[in-house]
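Lab channel / #folding
Pinned by the channel admin:
"Please post every new chain as: sequence first, then the structure tokens as a reply. Keep commentary short and put observations after the output so the thread stays searchable."

First post following the new format, from NK:
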Amino acid sequence: MQGVKIDTSALNPLYLEMGAAVQDCQRLELYISFIVTLLTDLSDGNLSDQEFRGSMENLGSQTLGRLMDEIKKRVGFTDEAVLALRKAQRGRNFLIHRFYNERSDLLLSQEGREKALKEIQEKRGAVNVANAMLDPVMNDLIRLKGIDLEQFRSEVEQRFEGS
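Reply from TO:
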């Protein structure tokens, strides 16, 4: 039906939150890949830049479940931390693989959209608990590697602003 226009602006808050949630999920996967690669680098001797990138690429192609298994083998997490990682994994998998299939009916009403938005926020919150838990691990490994964290952040910001 050409010419029929449907106003989807009521979905914008969901799209915005889902986009941010996907970004947070990607950050979780990147953090784990980076931590595992840094641990490999620190334990096996210095990896060359090419080996480091190769490790990151290899880990980046793994499922989140495999990444979780890998990091749990290498980092002595508490039971509470392992539960937080599992909750983040379940939340991420639901958002990425099942949300729209299982919750599309909620998008048809304002009440349903509010319920869906809360669910996205809840799952995103679980992912960010895991991200916050991994932050200090990553920062400690970066310091052990001898990388100046402030200089590293500054360089990343400059690259980001330059693109």
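NK: The chain has one domain: 11-158.
TO: also worth noting, The radius of gyration is 19 Å.
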